[in-house]
Design goal:
Elements: E1 2-3, E2 8-13, E3 16-21, H1 23-29, E4 32-36, E5 43-44, E6 49-55, E7 59-63, E8 68-73, H2 76-79, H3 83-86, E9 95-99, H4 111-118
């Protein structure tokens, strides 16, 4: 698993990358009350705004961590946005992306580096 400075996690599954936010980000946001997901088939470029999250404290955007095509979204979050708080690194994932260049993952932190970053 890799981590971004924007508190996203990225997990490679076969030829796809699953994207969500970290427990740390979930705690900072507070209770998530709304999630707007991208359309499947959307082509994204790194740093494009892809997901909108609203919590009791703030609204935030999730940026595309890599270039690629959105191939699946976590529809469960539309009706149950609190999954993000309950299981941020599991069932609370946002989307799966088919990367144009998996090498873009190399620039992100591993778990040890991320823990250092947030401490």
């Amino acid at each position: 698993m890799k981590f971004t400075e924007e508190h996203e996690w990225l997990r490679v599954e076969d030829d796809l990358v699953v994207v969500g936010i970290t427990e740390h980000a979930s705690e900072q946001l507070g209770d998530v009350v709304f999630v707007e997901l991208p359309e499947v088939g959307t082509q994204v470029t790194k740093d494009d705004e892809v997901v909108v999250i609203e919590s009791v404290k703030a609204a935030s955007d999730i940026l595309a961590p890599i270039d690629g095509e959105i191939v699946e979204v976590n529809e469960v979050l539309v009706d149950a946005p609190g999954k993000v708080n309950d299981d941020a690194t599991g069932d609370g994932w946002f989307f799966k992306i088919k990367p144009s260049d998996l090498g873009q993952m190399d620039e992100y932190m591993d778990e040890t580096a991320y823990q250092d970053y947030i401490s």
